[in-house]
Amino acid sequence: SNLIEQLPSDIFTNMPNLESLYINNNKLLVLEENTFSPVWENLMFFSAAGNGLRCDCRIAWILEKNFPNQTRAFCALPPELKGHSIDTLTSKDVWCFQ
């Protein structure tokens, strides 16, 4: 827990063998595709519990990927999705006002 608000987009670029990622109890609001896509498919464990994740169109990319065997990340917003695990979301859940 370092109260990280945002991760650099290239932070995982040279980590193709990363299998476990713990980013719990920070201030991350969004799981950006350009940040996580380089390692997402290889992760066996992903945990982002305790962040204020916004489950909207900005995380729709995750729904098109395979989830790690163990995923612990929960929506904080919008209110109707608060507490839902991101691996239970559908494309109908994650939308944005245009």
From TrEMBL:
UniProt key word Chaperone: no
Alphabetical GO biological process terms = cell surface receptor signaling pathway
Alphabetically list the UniProt keywords: Receptor
Tell me the domain of life. Eukaryota
User: What SUPFAM superfamilies is this protein classified in?
Assistant: L domain-like (SSF52058)
Q: Which Gene Ontology cellular-component terms appear in the entry?
A: plasma membrane
Q: Name one Pfam family in it.
A: LRR_8
Q: Which family does it belong to?
A: Belongs to the G-protein coupled receptor 2 family. Adhesion G-protein coupled receptor (ADGR) subfamily.
Q: Which PANTHER family match?
A: ADHESION G PROTEIN-COUPLED RECEPTOR A3, G-PROTEIN COUPLED RECEPTOR 124-LIKE PROTEIN
Name this polypeptide is given: LRRCT domain-containing protein
